[in-house]
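stuck on whats below:

***
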Amino acid sequence: MLRVVGVQPHESEGLEFVLLQNQGHMRLILRGHAVFSETAITGGDIRNAGHIFSEDESIGPGLFVMLSTGCGEPHWGRTKDGAYIFHTYMNRNSSVWLNCSAPLHVLGVQHTYIDRSSKIEYLVAK
């Protein structure tokens, strides 16, 4: 279960981020999860106030994900206290969370369907 544990809104996209943690008991794949502000959901502006993760990264129980607004390459690292953290980026050149006055929502993957012929091609490509 991926949960928001911190938000750092900032005028500079390089210093703005959302911190998430897998608070479940099992590993989860980040791909397909999304973070949206209430404003994006009610106003229909999901491109400017949200993010859908495309990384096929496995996040273990208790581990963190830092979603920075700015640009960069996704990578694993350690926090100052030694905890593992997956750092990924929205690749935006302006602040996203600074003007969002409503709560943030994390949407998770409930189900994925692949038909048999596509599944073989998908597994071979990996």
